[in-house]
From TrEMBL:
InterPro entries for this protein: DUF2867 (IPR021295), NAD(P)-bd_dom (IPR016040), NAD(P)-bd_dom_sf (IPR036291), NAD(P)-dependent_oxidoreduct (IPR051783)
Listed name of the protein: SDR family oxidoreductase
Start and end residues of each NAD(P)-binding domain: 17-125
UniProt xrefs under SUPFAM superfamilies: NAD(P)-binding Rossmann-fold domains
Originating organism: Streptomyces ossamyceticus
Top-level taxonomic group: Bacteria
Residues of the signal peptide: none
CDD domains the UniProt entry points to: SDR_a2
Lineage: Bacteria, Bacillati, Actinomycetota, Actinomycetes, Kitasatosporales
């Protein structure tokens, strides 16, 4: 364990999924409410650069499918937040969800935890469970397992969550902004009750202090019930866009529509499919009983238009604290970079570049940390674009995930089809590829100085091939490295010189 979790004198809360969209936002809300926080994370280092990481937050390394690590994390806990799910990890994700929920409930009961809180999905009223999408069916089953575990449990059931960076909001935003005329599936006529992320977090925090005799599910939603078509029309109005023409086509299946969403938005088909499948049935709240225990303050629940305004403001001000891509994409490589120079794990191909830069190290680092997203990759844009499209066609994430923040990165951030694996602020940025590859790949960029005090840019691309196909892949792309990686190094160096010159002009006294 790391940290001391001594802030506040309230109950100790265990948060799973703290590297994800909701969990990463819940932790500071719990701290602000005077509660103590412990996080269970498979990769604790990914929490290191969060703004609340310096607060008294404990971190336990572990996984919800590992009973021993869950038991260790549960010691002394008063409230356990279950904010994880195995969606997209394979065809057996429902069994993984089932097993993890049982472990969490059993270990909570054994540790004497007083309360569990789970954020699940809002299920349609009167629809047999076997007719639900696998995504919603699994969410409902996890809720039942936790309710039956012998620990008082609050299951919050939400439909579409509207907040900056949420997958549902990003899907809505990009579909509406990029397509003034769109042919849509029939699910655009399904009635939905969206909820602002602020109201979700408020309910989650409030559940920490529910009476001991409350153990049940609660529907949570905003004041508006809308079809997806109406949501797109109202989004366009709030965002100041011209009216959208929306035509629905019944023959677009959830599978086809998920690929359509994947082509138009940054949300890959693997995540878009469960979102679209969940919209086949009406998802509307049938009660608002949570208000008896967590009263609504003035102005809450937040309406759809205001939730969109708040989310857009955060996007435009670059204050998106977590995104749907904060969590690792299921199936993406997670092996750390081998650090042993004589690594015996097999072939490790390397492309190295080094250039002296006529600019301060600080200017070079600003360019390095600002790479990707709207700033691009400083080399052969068409080649990067084609590689991104090929990755999307293969079911990967492509380039359009962009960045959470335009200027600053933190460990665990997604960056187009890379993931930030390590940052040594001012010196090193290491990215791990999450594109579809026959092997594992990393890209390192250093801002350094040589013995003469000159600024030096060092760049290293590494590839660990899997099988014969991996070796063939490396040698097939090796002839293009001088253009792609060599051009990148040269253009980053030029950008650093330009940055230094621009800052010098800003500091120069006015004539």
């Amino acid at each position: 364990m790391t940290g001391e979790a001594e802030r506040g004198a309230g109950p100790l809360c265990l948060v799973t999924g703290a590297t994800g969209y909701i969990g990463g936002r819940l932790v500071p809300e719990l701290l602000e409410a005077g509660l103590r926080v412990r996080c269970l994370a498979r990769s604790p280092e990914r929490l290191r650069d969060h703004p609340w990481a310096e607060a008294a937050v404990e971190v336990v390394r572990g996984d919800v499918t590992d009973a021993e690590s869950v038991a260790r994390a549960m010691r002394g806990v008063d409230v356990g937040y279950y904010l994880v799910h195995a969606l997209g990890t394979g065809d057996d994700f429902e069994e993984t969800d089932r097993r993890a929920a049982r472990i969490f409930g059993e270990q909570a009961r054994a540790a004497g935890v007083g309360r569990l809180v789970y954020l699940g999905g809002l299920t349609p009223y009167g629809v047999p469970e076997e007719e639900l999408s696998p995504h919603l069916r699994s969410r409902a089953e996890v809720g039942r397992i936790l309710l039956d575990c012998g620990v008082p449990t609050a299951v919050l059931r939400a439909a579409v969550v509207i907040g900056s960076g949420s997958a549902s909001f990003e899907m809505l935003r990009y579909l509406t902004e990029r397509l003034p005329v769109m042919v849509t599936p029939s699910w655009v006529h399904t009635r939905i009750q969206p909820v602002a992320v602020r109201d979700v977090l408020r309910a989650l925090v409030g559940c920490a202090r529910l009476p001991d005799d409350v153990s049940r599910a609660f529907d949570i939603g905003g004041p508006d019930v809308l079809t997806y078509r109406e949501m797109m029309i109202r989004y366009a109005a709030v965002a100041g866009l011209p009216p959208r023409l929306i035509l629905s086509v019944p023959m677009l299946t959830p599978g086809l529509s998920s690929h359509w969403v994947g082509l138009v938005t940054p949300v890959p088909a693997s995540i878009a499919r469960p979102l679209t499948e969940s919209l086949r049935h009406e998802v509307v709240c049938h009660e608002h009983d949570i208000a008896r225990y967590v009263p609504d303050p003035p102005g809450h629940p937040i309406g759809f238009d205001e939730a969109v305004r708040l989310a857009l403001r955060r996007v435009r001000e670059a204050r998106v604290t977590t995104r749907w891509s904060s969590a690792s994409l299921p199936g993406a490589p997670s092996d750390p970079l081998p650090t042993d120079p004589d690594w015996a794990g097999g072939s490790l191909y390397t492309d190295r570049r080094e250039l002296c830069v006529d600019a301060p190290c600080a200017s070079l680092w600003r360019v390095i940390e600002g790479i990707g997203g709207d700033n691009g990759w400083y080399s052969f844009p068409l080649a990067w674009a084609v590689r991104g499209w090929l990755d999307r066609l293969a079911g990967g994430v492509g380039l359009r995930r962009g960045r959470r923040d335009a200027t600053r990165l933190r460990v665990g951030d997604s960056l187009d089809f890379w993931r930030v694996e390590e940052i040594e602020r001012g010196r090193l940025l290491r990215l791990r590829a999450e594109m579809r590859l026959p092997g594992l790949a990393w890209l390192e960029m250093y801002a350094d100085t040589d013995d003469a005090g000159r600024t030096v840019f060092r760049q290293r691309a590494l590839f660990h091939p899997h099988g014969l196909l991996g070796h063939a892949y490396w040698w097939s792309v090796a002839p293009f490295h001088s253009v792609v990686f060599g051009g990148m190094a040269r253009n980053i160096a030029r950008a650093a010189v330009s940055d230094a010159a621009a800052r010098a002009r800003e500091r120069a006294p006015a004539p």
